[in-house]
Each structure stands twice: as structure tokens, then as C-alpha cells.
Amino acid sequence: MTPDLMKAGARIRAEHSGASYGRVVTPGVVDTAHGAILYLDDITVSFDGFKALNALSLSIDAGELRCIIGPNGAGKTTMMDVITGKTRPDAGRAFFGSTIDLLRLRENDIAAIGIGRKFQKPTVFEHLSVFENLELALKTDHGVRASMFFRLGGAQLDRIGEVLVLIHLKDSAQRSAGLLSHGQKQWLEIGMLLMQDPRLLLLDEPVAGMTDEETERTAELFLSLEGSHSLVVVEHDMKFIHALTHGNPAKKVTVLHEGSVLAEGSLKDVQANDKVVEVYLGR
Ligand code: ADP
Ligand code: MG
Fold this sequence. Notes:
alpha/beta; 4-stranded antiparallel sheet
């Protein structure tokens, strides 16, 4: 376990000592013995009486790649805000594995226990090289003093090398991030997330603005992460959803509408669902 995770673990344990945990939270050790890595139960979020999430329940298996679709305003981004601790629900339960109660943790702690989130807009450091961006992602949470004396170890260099290959940027390692295409910047940001070794990745409209070729490569990247990671992918691009599910009827797609699950099943099944066609696909 890395020192920052140990620190986060100590902090979480200190904050919740005396709280009603059945077990101590150990970051990096997510209990997925029952299969689920993420479990949302009856989550409701209201903004001035309007229910952005309305008794939303959802379960994601360890190693699963779940696609989530649905019209604008369905609550997809709000759901990610709840999982990452940015928004507190009015009601419901949210668990990471079977023992970690996400609603008791702060945003930083949730990131530290292995939930990585990619926002729509890439936020890479444009004046730094691709390599330096990945290096920086390793340093976050070490604090300024620790960063000043931070030296890359062999294992960390190897990891940067692996991630550069995964995100198709090995040949651009020394380029300024500001010179990358929009799609490459998105990959770099995914690479920065991967440097922190998340168990669960939340990706909100990751291929928006990408070329067709970049979109295809992004699908390949996500499929290569499936299994070793769990992924929740929110996207409008149906070609992309097709590529991620590649006709596999065992792969579930979830359709959100008005803050709850409208349909769930294989892509073929949800595409044939009359309610889904009416509120989303048929427009
Ligand atoms: P999606 O990502 O599916 O398009 P969102 O989760 O962004 O949907 O939004 C769901 C609904 O909640 C929308 O009607 C949106 O206007 C509303 N909403 C989201 N965040 C806020 C907020 N901070 N304050 C008020 N309303 C919000
Ligand atoms: Mg959204």
C-alpha cells in the first residue's frame, strides 16, 4: 500500500472510530466477495423540490463495464456526483464493495479508496509534457513537502510506461500536452486517473468531441481495462455503446430517465423497449 493510501486510511479510521462500522475501512482492500463493487439503493437527490434522482437503485459487479444512457437531465451526472461525494443525497444508501459506506466519506477520501472520475472537459496541464502529467498524477495527495522530495522509483517508471502504451501516447511522451488533439488530451486524463490505481472508474461522456477513429480507440482502451477495473460509462454516442457491448447479450446497459432506472438489460433488449424508444432513442 502506498503511503498516501495509508495516511488516508488512518484518517478515515480516525474519523469514523466509534461510528457504526462493522469493519474497519482499509483503502485498497474493497470487499467484493459478494460480487458488487458499487451498490446504490433508493438514492434520492432533490434540488429545490425537484428530484434529480428519484429512488435510484443500481448495482455494478467487480470487473464489469456498465454503459449508462438516457436523455439530458435524466440524472446521470448527479449519480456520479453522489458516488464521488460531491452531492449528498436526501435519502438512500451507497456502498463501495460490501463494507464501505460512501455516504460517510468525503470527496478526497472517496478518491483515495479507489474511485476515479473523469469529467467531460479534459483538465491536463498544457505546459507540461505528457510524461510529466502522468508523473504529477502520481504525486497528488503527497502534499507539497513530499512532492518536493519525490523521486520516481523503478516500479513507478514502469507503470508510466505501461499507461503510455494503454492510452496510445507512447510516441508523444515528451510532447507538451497543449499540443495534443482533443481526443489525446482525453486519453491523457484517463491515463492520469489510471496512475492512481483506481478500482472503479466513472466516465462522463468520454468521447464527446472525438473523431470516429479516436472514439474507436477509446472503446478499445475501455475494453482492455474491463476485468481488472470496473467502469461506469455515461455516453450518448450509440456507436460507441455498440463497440463497448459488441453484441454481447450478457453485457448490461442501464437507461436512466427522470432520476431512476427506466430499463436495464442487453443493448438489444433496451433498444427494443417501447418506453426507452419513446423517451430517448426514438427522438
Ligand atoms: P444528465 O447528466 O443526465 O444530463 P444531470 O444529473 O446533470 O442530468 O441533471 C439532472 C437534473 O438535475 C437536471 O434537470 C438538472 O437541471 C438538475 N440539476 C443538476 N444539478 C443541479 C444543481 N446543482 N442545482 C439544481 N438543479 C440541478
Ligand atoms: Mg450529464
